[in-house]
Amino acid sequence: MIKNRPRQARRAAVQSFLGFTALAALPWSADAQSDRITRFILPNATGSGVDNITRSAQPALTRALGTSVVVENQPGAGGIVGLQALARTPPDGYTLSIVSNNVVIFPSVYSKLPFDVLNDFVPITVIGFTPIVVVINPKVPVSNATELVNWLKSRNGEATVASAGAGTIIHLANEMFLNESGTRARHVPYKGVGPMLTDLIGGHVDFGTAALPSVQAHLRNGNLKAVGIATAERVSAAGDLPTFVEQGLPGYVVEAWFGVMGPKGMPDSEIARVQKAFASAFSEPDLLAAMAKGGNVIKVQSTEYARQYFRAETRKYADLVQRAGIEKQ
Asked: Which CATH number fits domain 131-238: 3.30.1300.10, 3.40.120.10, 1.25.40.10, 3.40.190.10?
């Protein structure tokens, strides 16, 4: 028996080697999850629109990327903390961020940033957009855009308009509405969407704008009323809500878009891999249905489109900030 052990050992080694080479010959699939982890550093608080989208997409992204997906919320300083953390990570394609319009607004509203938005990050794709709605406390005696405009004019600038923070897309959406309607209101900034909605529901502020998914439950239970949606056409998730275009404010169209960024220096191969994974994840029927139910419109774009779009949006909001007279912080 002792003499047979080397022969048995050699036979086992050969069988093991053959088994390994057979497995290695099998085609690799993203469904075969690797030991790597993909981190998403979100410059937004838990419960925000971007956070909800990312967490809803987590299972699909895990399958498409072939890695575990971890979401880290770092919302400090209006989102600057999270973006600064992203800028400092290795550009290996395994630390990314899903961002909103806010990222291209920052250069226009902050005098000093610890990063260069257009040069310290790599736009990878634009995923889609979330409709913006104008919501009011139910005690405000209006039910449509015309009545809101007349009511604001009667208040002579004493009405209050809430935002999720100075310089955010919600703040600029407010300013766009006031500019388009020729009205005035006193701006009340909050540290995030949650506190803003709490005070809107409580009647401490009169009205504001918000992403549709963040207020859908409040609209259903009557805690808030919506007077219109700021899209070019009605959306299926709120089909009974008229657009402002329909209500006589044709220039009031604004979207809260969301896209993917990585730190500068990412290899083209990694950028292509991530973009392809997002296109795959956001084509899954269950995820698309969940996005549509939440009011999100999905249309995953190419990396070249994202690069041009980020630059164009930066210019657009710089012009809007200047016209609205918003001073840099």
From this structure: 3.40.190.10
Angle subtended by helix axes 169-181 and 102-109, to nearest 10:
80
CA atoms of 313 and 176, how far apart (whole Å): 15
Residues of the chain above pLDDT 90, percent: 68
Question: Which amino acid is located at 191 in the chain?
Answer: K
pLDDT score for 21:
39
Contacts of residue 169, Cβ cutoff 8 Å, sequence gap at least 6: 100, 101, 102, 105, 132, 254, 256
Domains of the chain by residue range = 37-129+257-324, 131-238
Return the CATH fold of 37-129+257-324. Answer: D-Maltodextrin-Binding Protein; domain 2 (3.40.190)
* CATH topology agreement for domains 37-129+257-324 and 131-238: yes
pLDDT of residue 23 exceeding 60: no
What pTM does this model have? 0.79
For 169-226, what is each residue's pLDDT tens digit?
899 999 999 999 999 999 999 888 889 999 999 999 999 999 898 899 999 999 999 9
